[in-house]
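Problem statement: downstream parser choked on a complex file, so we are re-checking the raw output for the FE2/S2 (inorganic) cluster run. The parser issue turned out to be on our end (a line-ending mismatch), but while we're here, posting the original submission so the record is complete.
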Amino acid sequence: MAKVVFVHPDGRREEHEGSDGQSVMRVATSNLVSGIIGECGGDLSCATCHVFVDAAWAQSVPTKTAAEDDMLAVTAEEPTEFSRLCCQIYCGRETDGIVIHIPRIQR
Ligand code: FES
């Protein structure tokens, strides 16, 4: 199990547990975290799971693939250097306690 901390645009925080190998998107949608939609189910074809990984955790997530990078070009909110699609971030020892900032606009 790994903890994921979601930070809403208004600063509100909520924490949820994910099982090892579960995507952060699935942790969010299964716990009804508002602002993360995950419309395509993790197929890298919707970009409605756009998040900003907290700067302190940026080195703990795997490098983006070219396909993820392409989808980050069509996010509703302007991407930053910390933008990721959270269907591509997985729970595990490396990401236990990861802090994820939710964008104001998701689609
Ligand atoms: S859930 Fe669609 S791209 Fe992540």
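For whoever reads this later: The CA atoms of residues 29 and 37 lie 7 Å apart.
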